[in-house]
Design brief:
Elements lengths: L1 E4 L6 H13 L4 E5 L12 E4 L8 H11 L2 E5 L3 H16 L3 E2 L4 H8 L1 H8 L8 E2 L9 E9 L2 E6 L2 H10 L5 E5 L4 E9 L5 E13 L2 E7 L3 H10 L7 E9 L4 E7 L7 H6 L3 H10 L15 E3 L10
Parallel strand pairs: 1-2, 1-4, 2-3, 4-5
Antiparallel strand pairs: 6-9, 7-8, 7-9, 10-11, 10-13, 11-12, 12-15, 13-14
Helix pairs in contact: 1-9, 3-4, 4-5
Length: 312
């Protein structure tokens, strides 16, 4: 009945939070990554180096490893995990291994920028999409259909930037959107078994490096909390979900939804969104234990690096 977290990379705070939650239900947390130089590996109860996500050996490896260590649940922590697990979750379930994520249709619709915008643009205000080259206004944002954090996202200042991008990618692979010059927010949200929103905490992204927030602050903005609730009518979410949006004080522009833990979600954990603990309650079917206490707003998080030493 143990848990395996995939692609742990440097997500040490997330692993610490999940491990603490596992202790409360007498479970062990195993960590997995394709690189032995991923520091978060060494903060779980045990770890394993797995084949790369695009390897045809990964599925059999996971089945064998989980069976040998009484692992019955897998938690994805990256978009690459989501893409892979959608294709194999039924095979894993045949071996008694359940993937802790939203349903496959929701995952596919959120991962694909094209599908996501098709679903949301008639219901929620989003940045303008340019369907033709001649319509693009600069600056604009170009995103590969499947991208994560800052990877696969480009800011185009002029036609020359566009031409360089089109030397690498076909126009049909990219979604082009209006550049929104407003404050960016993440809404860390948690959804229960029936897809209803249990709690949402917006956090202002004060400083962003490589697509991840390194300085952020929780804020009380009812409109952003309402956005998290409204999205539950469009998608069947389960567990922790991160929502990205711009807000200028009057208008919200939805950017994307990542149905997984975010890199800076630890701020929301400390502010009262007890996603690691609540995830274990979902597993144990103790829904009555998922209760929201007072939320700490105006709580600021300053992320920093820390050296870790490992004898090899």
């Amino acid at each position: 009945m143990n848990i395996l977290a995939l692609s742990v990379s440097s997500k040490v705070q997330l692993i610490n939070s999940l491990k603490d939650a596992c202790k409360m239900s007498s479970r062990k947390l195993f960590c997995a990554d394709a690189s032995e130089d991923s520091p978060a590996l060494y903060f779980g109860d045990d770890f394993v180096i797995v084949p790369k996500i695009n390897s045809n050996q990964l599925l059999d490896f996971l089945i064998n490893y989980c069976s040998s260590n009484d692992i019955t649940f897998i938690i994805p922590t990256s978009d690459h995990d989501l893409v892979f697990l959608v294709t194999v979750r039924e095979k894993l379930l045949m071996h008694g291994i359940k993937v802790l994520m939203s349903d496959s249709l929701t995952i596919n619709n959120c991962i694909s920028k094209f599908k996501f915008n098709e679903i949301c643009h008639n219901n929620i205000l989003m940045p303008t999409i340019y369907s033709f080259l001649e319509d693009i206004k600069y600056p604009c944002v170009a995103k590969l259909n499947i991208s994560q954090a800052s990877k696969g996202v480009f800011i185009l200042e002029n036609r020359q930037d566009l031409n360089k991008l089109l030397e690498k990618y076909d126009f049909s692979e990219i979604i082009f959107q209006d550049f929104i010059d407003s404050q960016e927010y993440t809404i860390d949200s948690f959804y229960g078994n029936n897809g209803e929103l249990i709690c949402a905490i917006p956090r202002e992204r004060l400083k962003v490096v490589n697509g991840e927030s390194v300085i952020s602050k929780t804020v009380y903005i009812p409109a952003l909390i309402d956005l998290a609730a409204h999205l539950s009518s469009l998608f069947n979410f389960l567990g922790h979900v991160t929502i990205q949006a711009f807000y200028d004080g009057s208008k919200i522009h939805l950017i994307e939804v990542n149905p997984r833990f975010g890199g800076a979600s630890n701020l929301s954990f400390n502010a009262g969104l007890k996603s690691p603990e609540w995830t274990l309650h979902l597993i144990n079917k103790d829904n009555k234990l998922i209760t929201v206490d007072d939320i700490k707003y105006n709580l600021k998080m300053l992320r920093y690096s820390k050296d870790f030493f490992n004898e090899v």
